[in-house]
UniProtKB/TrEMBL annotation:
Gene3D superfamilies according to UniProt: Aldehyde Dehydrogenase, Chain A, domain 1, Aldehyde Dehydrogenase, Chain A, domain 2
Keyword Oxidoreductase: yes
GO molecular function, one term: succinate-semialdehyde dehydrogenase (NAD+) activity
Keywords, in A-Z order: Oxidoreductase
Protein name: Succinate-semialdehyde dehydrogenase [NADP(+)] GabD
Database matches in PROSITE patterns: ALDEHYDE_DEHYDR_GLU (PS00687)
Domain Aldehyde dehydrogenase: 23-483
Pfam families from the UniProt entry: Aldedh (PF00171)
Family classification: Belongs to the aldehyde dehydrogenase family.
Residue numbers annotated as active site: 260
Entry EC no(s): 1.2.1.79
Species this protein is from: Mycobacterium basiliense
Gene Ontology biological-process entries: gamma-aminobutyric acid catabolic process
């Protein structure tokens, strides 16, 4: 990509707040800078919303709610389907924009735009299939009519690691169900969401149905909206720490709450697995987004008889991945999001090594501008190393040996998180036994990627509440109403 292409996509994106179908500056005119994580340099600045702007966005969503709920489902579906097509038409520019603000390689950014668009197609198809029921009461003297209605205005908060897909995963079902919303992307990566606002508007979304505010410090702007009682739902994707805080705020007005939080995925390789498949699965589960994914393989448990061979093959594969600015051709590993993320990864690796881990490849930050860390494989990792407890959020594979099925299930479940786990084995009964015993909302069997817009994504334990995607994804945005009819 040339510097001219980069300048063009940056110039084309709106950098103001999107409220009631219009682009507006922040009430106090302030802005904040967006940096390129590959260089640390400023790309552009966007409006920094105030409390007043947040309130205006929620007021617009509240005002638009009755008409949006009454809009025929087919028309809401058409907006989503048209947006799906526009996302694909503009995939090159949108991918470049995402790479610039977030750092992931262009091929991955393109993959994320296609994945994000798929949520719109999936929920366009769901919008026209919202069901109800009609039933005779057991005593015969009444009928039960059951219908489903939009929950009402929603607050949607998303993280920086999947700047487009985490937004469409919430907006798709909200629009399909007839809920209006205020969406707040992460301050590191607001540009993709601002670009999406333009697309939704062009696709015919009515004014006020989706509003977008960008802000550096979300707490003071979002808390009054959560506590106002005007919104009926919060859907949050981000860390467990912040999710817990928001759940407390939601308690006051009993908001419907969906939380997609952190993970600490175990990735289990039994000695009977196809080792090449398991290595490819581990690279996919570890390296997507440079390891900055809630679904990233955090603890890789390998049966002791094959751990040396698995470690050798994985290290060879990881060491061959080209590191660089995501806009460069052939790059497979971009920078981490910021200096704090880089420091955390360095600290976790140093701690593991101090506790006896051996470095098979990587292990030292890359010199130069930007926040680069090389693909790293550690083996002989002690279970009490900090990286077994916390999300690494970086390209570091940590290998731990195990002996028996019972041992590895106990170790895998020994965490407060429960988002996803991965199991590699060619023994069908063992695969199902272990999948059933793992305390996670999702399991990848002989595969390193589980995310699919048509499957229910979500966690148990402290990884979250509710599901996004799949047939149940729209339920999070619908209330069930029962109408009792006397039929004497
Ligand atoms: P984060 O610090 O929790 O922030 C997530 C979002 O919440 C950002 O937009 C952030 O904006 C906002 N936020 C933070 N404090 C807030 C507050 N008091 N009130 C309202 N909003 C607030 O997480 P992150 O570092 O961006 O993302 C990484 C985390 O997300 C990881 O833990 C990862 O596992 C998780 N994640 C989970 C899933 C899933 O589906 N389960 C998917 C992707 C990521 P500000 O920074 O401006 O405060």
């Amino acid at each position: 990509m040339s510097e001219r292409d980069e300048a063009c996509v940056l110039q084309a994106v709106e950098k103001r707040l999107f409220i009631d179908g219009k682009w507006v500056d922040a009430a106090d005119g302030r802005t904040f800078d967006i940096a390129d994580p590959a260089t640390g340099e400023t790309l552009c600045s966007v409006a920094n919303a105030t409390v007043v702007d947040g309130q205006a966005a929620l007021d617009a969503a509240v005002a638009a709610q009755p008409d949006f709920a009454a809009m025929p489902p087919r028309q809401r579906a058409d907006v989503l389907m048209q947006s799906f097509h526009l996302l694909h038409e503009r995939i090159d520019d949108l991918a470049l924009l995402m790479t610039l603000e977030m750092g992931k390689p262009l091929a991955e950014a393109r993959g994320e735009i296609a994945y994000a668009a798929e949520f719109f197609r999936h929920f366009a198809e769901e919008a026209v299939r919202i069901d109800g029921g009609y039933q005779t009461a057991p005593h015969g003297g009444a009928r039960f009519l059951v219908t489903r209605q939009p929950v009402g205005p929603c607050l949607l908060i998303t993280p920086w690691n999947f700047p487009m897909a985490m937004g469409t995963r919430k907006l798709g079902p909200a629009i399909a169900a007839g809920c209006t919303s205020v969406i707040k992307p992460a301050p590191q990566t607001p540009l993709s969401m601002l670009a999406l606002m333009g697309i939704l508007s062009e696709a015919g979304l009515p004014a006020g149905a989706v509003n977008c505010i960008t802000v550096t410090d979300a707490g003071p702007v979002m808390e009054p909206l959560i506590r106002s009682g005007l919104a009926r739902k919060l859907s949050f994707t981000g860390s467990t720490t912040v999710g817990r805080q928001l759940l407390k705020q939601c308690a006051e007005k009993i908001l419907r709450t969906s939380l997609e939080l952190g993970g600490n995925a175990p990735f289990i390789v039994f000695s009977d697995a196809d080792l090449d498949e398991a290595v490819e699965g581990a690279v996919a589960a570890k390296m997507r987004n440079m390891g900055q994914a809630c679904t990233a393989a955090n603890r890789i448990y390998v049966q002791s008889s094959v751990i040396d061979e698995f470690g050798r093959r994985l290290a060879e594969r990881m060491a061959a991945l080209p590191v660089g600015r995501g806009t460069q051709p052939g790059v497979a590993v971009g920078p981490l999001i910021d200096a704090a993320a880089l420091r955390k990864v360095q600290m976790l690796v140093a701690d593991a090594v101090e506790r006896g881990a051996a470095v098979l490849t990587g292990g030292e930050a890359v010199d130069g501008g930007g926040y680069f860390y090389p693909p790293t494989v550690l083996t002989n990792v002690s279970p009490d190393a900090a990286l077994c407890e916390q999300e690494i959020f970086g390209p570091v594979a940590s290998l731990i040996a195990f002996e028996t099925e019972a041992d590895v299930i106990a170790a895998a479940n020994d965490t407060e998180y429960g988002l996803v786990s991965y199991v590699f084995t060619n023994d069908l009964r063992r695969a199902l036994r272990v999948a059933e015993a793992l305390e996670t909302g999702m399991v990848g069997l002989n595969q390193g990627v589980v995310s699919n817009p048509s499957a229910p994504f979500g966690g148990v334990k402290q990884s979250g509440l509710g599901r996004e995607g799949g047939a149940v994804g729209i339920d999070e945005f619908l209330e069930t109403k029962y109408i009792g009819i006397a039929m004497p």
